[in-house]
């Protein structure tokens, strides 16, 4: 089947397009359209056959009911019965919007739409395209997410086309959605009402309006033995093709754990993906790292989650590691989807983070323009058993300078480079519990110890590797002096690499 794609601008809705799409729906066809949550796959909610077509296009199990979308509040009473008193006030606060409410179903609603249940889920979306389309279709449009069952929900028309192109009649392309996660589902047939799926409307927001609400216990934490009350929540969902693993712990530990896992994968020649945030992005060195949004505004994370999961499908990664997010407000919905996407695969960050005596290695020379940066760069070329942050500093750096040109010439002849290096002075923050400070000569070591009064982490390079070699200062001498210095450094760094790897063995 050819899938027609029609662009539509929600600020200037083209009525001809809406009428065309509405006609397809009235004739029993399928039209995907934007809503503020995710793209929906629309069908006439009052036609049994239309529901069957929906299940077939999505590959969705037919015991997984559809949400009926309406555009006018009066229409609720045409499809639902025994509507409790709190409904009016909830609707006045949250409709139109990302809240779905479940009621006893009216007779007009076919069992095809409700997956055989005697209840019906109803939502009034806010997106103007969605609302105009619902009206043009006759008022009742069932619309599950417009993806192949099990894949991440679609947040753009391109995502819909990826999954359903050729299987449905039409896609209305209204650009990227706003929220990016499916609606909150609230069961109104029990008292107090119960949240069956967390979303942008949080428990706190609902409680402010109607007092106590309960939460389906299967949504909380661990994989429960019990089946969730929303039939759809029992399936692995929103899942990318690669294995997704969530690191749990405090954020610093999560970052360390993911770094170690990514480094181990790199050494084994495997490619991994990393779900990071604006704030944590700079901490990752290995792996395919994607920014999912900022921790300062969880809405950005919600909006990007499915797109990021889909993007990983296009890339050659076998495992994706994700940081965790705070389970507050919208964070509950984010973690709920992420855990489902991961099939509840989690690792405790603290169990992964190896006890590592040193994590940062800083070489120190006088001006940070030749010997220390050379040593750092030589060490960076080793595939060590563990990952270290390696850099260099100077004792006296009056202003930032590039590397010495002769040092660079020598490095180039050994297929290395100091390009981009800028000299920096040693500062207090360079000395942390997990720092290994290696000075080029004795006088630099003594200066640091005099200033910081600390000896546990500060050594000369030769001393640390158990050698009595002195590293000559080539400054002001011809190129050959830099060459000799390089050879000496290379010998010492080789020993250093061996020593670092042997420390790892002792720890394990
Ligand atoms: P989707 O439309 O893809 O967002 O999925 C709809 C979700 O709503 C699924 O998890 C369904 O199981 C849930 N749902 C729809 N109708 C009902 C109902 N009558 N009772 C409980 N859950 C429902
Ligand atoms: Mg869905």
Mind summarizing the main beta sheet? 12 strands, mixed
Give the fraction of residues assigned to helices. 25-40%
Give the class from helix and strand content and strand pairing. alpha/beta
Low-pLDDT segments: none
Gross morphology is elongated
* Attached small molecules: adenosine monophosphate, magnesium ion
Count of beta strands: 21
Share in β-strands: 15-25%
Mean pLDDT reading: 94
- Tell me the number of helical segments per DSSP (H or I, 4 or more residues long): 17
Alpha carbon gap, first and last residue: 60 Å
Oligomer: single chain
Radius of gyration: 30 Å
Layout of strands and helices, then pairs:
Blueprint: E1 4-7, H1 15-26, E2 31-33, E3 40-44, H2 48-58, E4 67-69, H3 76-79, E5 80-81, H4 86-94, E6 99-105, H5 111-114, E7 119-123, H6 128-136, E8 141-142, H7 157-164, E9 170-173, E10 184-187, E11 194-197, H8 203-210, E12 214-215, E13 243-248, H9 251-268, E14 272-276, E15 288-291, H10 298-314, E16 319-322, H11 330-341, E17 346-348, H12 349-352, E18 360-365, H13 371-380, E19 389-394, H14 405-413, E20 435-439, H15 442-452, E21 458-460, H16 461-465, H17 479-507
Parallel strand pairs: 1-9, 2-9, 4-7, 6-10, 11-12, 13-16, 13-17, 14-15, 14-16, 18-19, 18-20, 20-21
Antiparallel strand pairs: 2-3, 3-8, 4-8, 5-6, 6-7, 10-11
Helix pairs in contact: 1-6, 10-11, 13-17, 14-17
The protein binds adenosine monophosphate and magnesium ion.
What does this protein look like?
- It is built from 17 helices and 21 strands.
- A hairpin with a 6-residue loop joins strand 2 and strand 3.
- It is of the alpha/beta class.
- 44% of the residues are buried.
- The mean pLDDT is 94.
- It binds adenosine monophosphate and magnesium ion (MG).
- Adenosine monophosphate is lined by residues 64-67, 102, 114, 117, 119-121, 144-145, 182, 185, 196, 230-233.
- Magnesium ion is lined by residues 144-145, 153.
């Amino acid at each position: 089947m050819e899938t027609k794609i029609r662009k539509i601008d929600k600020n200037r809705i083209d009525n001809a397009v809406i009428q065309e799409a509405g006609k397809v729906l009235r004739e029993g066809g399928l039209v995907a359209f934007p809503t503020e949550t995710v793209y929906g796959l629309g069908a006439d909610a009052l036609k049994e056959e239309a529901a069957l077509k929906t299940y077939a296009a999505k590959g969705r199990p037919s015991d997984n009911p559809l949400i009926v979308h309406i555009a006018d509040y009066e229409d609720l009473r045409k499809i639902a019965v025994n509507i409790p008193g709190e409904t009016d006030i909830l609707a006045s606060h949250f409709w139109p919007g990302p809240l779905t409410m479940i009621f006893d179903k009216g007779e007009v609603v076919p069992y095809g739409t409700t997956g055989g249940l005697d209840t019906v889920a109803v939502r009034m979306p806010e997106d103007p395209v969605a609302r105009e389309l619902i009206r043009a279709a006759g008022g009742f449009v069932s619309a599950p997410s417009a993806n192949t069952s099990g894949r991440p929900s679609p947040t753009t028309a391109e995502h819909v086309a990826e999954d359903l192109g050729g299987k449905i009649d039409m896609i209305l392309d209204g650009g990227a959605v706003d929220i990016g996660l499916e609606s909150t589902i609230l069961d109104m047939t029990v008292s107090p009402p119960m949240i069956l799926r967390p979303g942008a409307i949080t428990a706190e927001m609902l409680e402010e309006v109607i007092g106590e609400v309960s939460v389906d216990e299967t949504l909380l934490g661990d994989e429960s033995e019990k089946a969730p009350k929303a039939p759809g929540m029992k399936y692995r969902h929103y899942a990318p093709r690669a294995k997704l693993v969530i690191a749990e712990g405090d954020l610093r530990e999560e970052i360390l754990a993911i770094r170690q896992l990514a480094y181990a994968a790199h050494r084994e020649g495997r490619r991994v993906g990393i779900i990071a945030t604006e704030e944590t992005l700079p901490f990752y060195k290995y792996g395919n790292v994607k920014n999912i949004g900022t921790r300062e505004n969880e809405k950005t994370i919600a909006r990007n989650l499915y797109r990021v999961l889909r993007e990983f499908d296009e890339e050659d990664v076998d495992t994706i590691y994700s940081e965790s997010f705070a389970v507050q407000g919208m964070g509950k919905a984010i973690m709920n989807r992420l855990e489902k996407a991961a099939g509840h695969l989690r690792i405790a960050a603290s169990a992964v983070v190896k006890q590592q005596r040193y994590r940062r290695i800083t070489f120190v020379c006088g001006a940070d323009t030749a010997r220390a940066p050379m040593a750092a760069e030589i060490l960076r070329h080793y595939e060590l058993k563990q990952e270290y942050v390696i850099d260099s500093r100077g004792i006296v750096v009056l202003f930032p300078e590039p590397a010495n040109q002769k040092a660079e010439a020598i490095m180039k002849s050994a297929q290395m480079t100091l390009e981009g290096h800028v000299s920096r002075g040693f500062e207090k923050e360079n000395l942390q519990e997990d720092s290994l400070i290696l000075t080029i000569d004795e006088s630099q070591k003594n200066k640091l110890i005099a200033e910081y009064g600390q000896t546990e982490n500060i050594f000369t390079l030769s001393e640390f590797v158990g050698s009595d070699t002195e590293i000559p200062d080539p400054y002001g001498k011809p190129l050959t002096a830099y060459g000799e210095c390089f050879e000496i450094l290379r010998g010492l760094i080789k020993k250093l690499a061996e020593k670092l790897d042997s420390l790892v063995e002792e720890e394990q």
